[in-house]
Design brief:
This protein is α+β, with helices and mostly antiparallel strands and 593 residues long. The protein is 59% helix and 10% strand. It has 19 helices and 13 strands. Strands 1, 2, 7, 8 and 9 form a 5-stranded antiparallel beta sheet that branches. It has a 4-stranded antiparallel beta sheet with strand order 4-5-3-6. 26% of the residues are buried.
Length: 593
């Protein structure tokens, strides 16, 4: 849900804003409206410091140091030293890589004396080095020239010619042989070992760089907040506006009273455009990152995260559709808790893994094997999803049912929000569509399970149709001409009917992705089984295990990608469109240390 916010208006003498902002930063609850980008030379400088520190941290983290390298302690200014070491690391890495290639190329020509070659050239017998593809090289050249083939592999022939020649493929005469280059490479690699030791020492000071980045960011945040002050009364007075959650009113007010600053507070309104803070329980909070990918709602909107938490989890599990894959995701999520850069995402991965394991079990699939045929599950076989529902594939029918429920819920949310913001009389058009579609789905479901008789169903549908038609075609806008309303209603009917059919069919992707992943996993199982045979040959177990493990690893990776993207699309496109969700809000980012 969207947390209610309190608006704080500060009035103070020009020059006192810095002290106030530092006090607000210590409180850590007040969001001051500020620019999201540097606005002048000073803020540009602070942003440059942050970007430099970001680059150093990323560079040190990506620098590859062989395991077992003994670190060399780094004392002094870590920013300056780390920058110099990363430049040396980059230069040496490139130089050594290039030198290794030159050594490899020179080894082909063997040992020779460059001085002797120069003397031969001065004596009128120059030695020319050539490298040609085998198709271009002609054997008769060996009879026509003083030619010696040095090395011929399957693609290239390398040869030298003593004396003048006009043969193609000539390369510059090497200035030294491979032994000299190998000695130079050895010296470079020995020097690079020292660089790697210092890089390892710098890696140990990454936490210090992160702390410096935090301090620089706090300075920038504080400066941008101060720049938001509005001068008044010939620049002698300035005003600042901030927002804090209403649930923290007492603590914020108590801290502000200690500062002696004059301030006014009032409940924030939509016109104030306050920052948006989402207030959810632990489970729903794990999915707020998905809401933020699209954008936060306006202050008068609704928080879609509770709906995303349920349906994204359900859709993800449908797309994966395998109990074994769900268990693997749970293990991955638990391991991610130990990785600093991914530990925040670990709970979400575990939740998705649990959902996948449960749905996969109900779909009776374990690493693409049908567990409903296993004897151990026969007593509880009744809980598994049937293979056929009304003559159609059970998973496909279930995907459509879940999609219809998702869209109906979206329309109910839209009706509630529009009624809350515009009033009942100004929302009759939306009420008409919701009664027609959602009411029709509910009545059809009750009729199918036998709760409603045919005659009662017919009369309910007639009443729903008449009431809905009045809202859609006559009262969709009370301030507009009735004939114009009919025209708008017809246009809305065309768009709604065609759009709704496409929206419902979009949910078939849940069935298709689950089916594709299951069939691919089954193919790897079958290939492995064909190689293993009856299992009597112990050696064949090795390729069997390799095929099954590698195959399912690839399948999990591809299935997880599809299971993330497509459920996200169903929420961002189908649900948001039919619920009328708009991302108009900005994140709540209080000044803090």
């Amino acid at each position: 849900m969207i947390a209610s916010m309190t608006k704080y208006s500060f009035i103070l003498l020009n020059g006192q804003q810095q002290e106030l902002l530092e006090q607000l930063q210590a409180i850590g609850l007040v969001d001051i409206t500020r620019s999201a980008k540097p606005i002048d030379e000073h803020s540009q400088k602070l942003m440059g410091e942050i970007e430099l520190l970001d680059g150093l941290i990323q560079g040190l983290e990506k620098a590859e140091v062989p395991e077992g390298t003994k670190s060399e302690p780094i004392d002094g200014d870590i920013v300056r030293l780390a920058g110099g070491m990363l430049m040396r690391y980059s230069d040496d890495s490139v130089n050594i890589k290039q030198l290794r290639k030159e050594v490899e190329d020179m080894r082909v020509w063997g040992q020779f004396d460059p001085d002797l070659l120069a003397k031969l050239g001065e004596a009128g017998v120059p030695v020319h080095f050539h490298s040609l593809s085998n198709k271009q090289f002609k054997q008769e050249w060996e009879q026509e020239y003083a030619l010696s083939v040095i090395k011929a592999d399957k693609d290239v022939t390398r040869f030298v010619v003593a004396g003048e020649d006009n043969l193609p493929g000539e390369i510059p005469t090497p200035s030294q042989d491979s032994s000299a280059l190998e000695k130079e490479l050895e010296e470079k690699e020995k020097h690079f070992e020292r660089v790697l030791a210092r890089i390892q020492g710098a890696k140990e000071r990454i936490p210090e760089l992160r702390q410096l980045r935090k301090e620089a960011y706090n300075k920038l945040d504080l400066y941008l907040a101060g720049a938001a002050a509005v001068p008044a009364a010939e620049d002698t007075i300035v005003t600042l506006v901030g927002y804090a959650p209403s649930e923290n009113d007492s603590s914020v007010s108590a801290e502000l009273d200690k500062t002696g600053v004059f301030y006014l507070k009032d409940s924030a309104t939509v016109e104030d455009n306050p920052p948006i803070k989402l207030k959810n329980n632990w489970f729903v909070r794990q999915f707020e990152v998905l809401t933020d990918m699209y954008g936060r709602p306006g202050y008068d909107g609704f928080d879609p995260t509770p709906f995303i938490s349920v349906f994204f989890l359900l859709f993800f599990a449908f797309c994966m559709g395998d109990c074994g894959y769900g268990l693997i995701l749970i293990v991955i999520g638990l391991l991610l808790k130990k990785v600093d850069s991914f530990k925040d995402m670990a709970p979400l991965v575990v939740i998705l893994g649990i959902g996948t394991a449960v749905i996969g079990f109900l779909f009776h699939t374990f690493f693409s094997m049908d567990i409903s045929t296993w004897g151990i599950f026969q007593p509880i076989k009744w809980i598994f999803l049937p293979g056929k529902i009304m003559g159609y594939d059970g998973t496909m029918v279930l995907s459509i049912i879940v999609g219809v429920i998702h869209l109906c819920l979206a329309m109910c949310v839209k009706t509630y929000e529009e009624t809350k913001n515009k009033g009942f009389l100004n929302s009759l058009g939306t009420w008409g569509w919701t009664l027609l579609i959602v009411g029709g789905v509910v009545v059809a479901a009750l009729a199918l399970i036998g709760v409603l008789s045919k005659d009662l169903t017919k009369w309910i549908i007639i009443v729903l149709g008449v009431v809905s038609a009045l809202g859609i075609f006559v009262f969709n806008d009370l301030k507009r001409n009735k004939l114009a309303n009919v025209g708008v209603g017809l246009w809305d009917t065309y768009n709604t009917v065609t759009g709704l059919i496409g929206d419902v069919l979009s949910y078939l992707r849940l069935y298709a992705l689950g089916l594709a992943g299951g069939m691919l996993g089954l193919a790897f199982n079958n290939i492995g089984q064909m190689i293993l045979g009856d299992g009597s040959n112990a050696i064949l177990w090795i390729p069997f295990i390799l095929i099954v493990v590698i195959g399912h690893t690839l399948n999990i990776a591809m299935a997880a990608l599809g299971a993330f993207v497509h459920p996200l699309r169903l929420n961002f496109l189908e649900f948001f469109k039919n619920s009328g969700y708009e991302a108009r809000g900005r994140n709540y980012t209080p000044l803090s240390k």
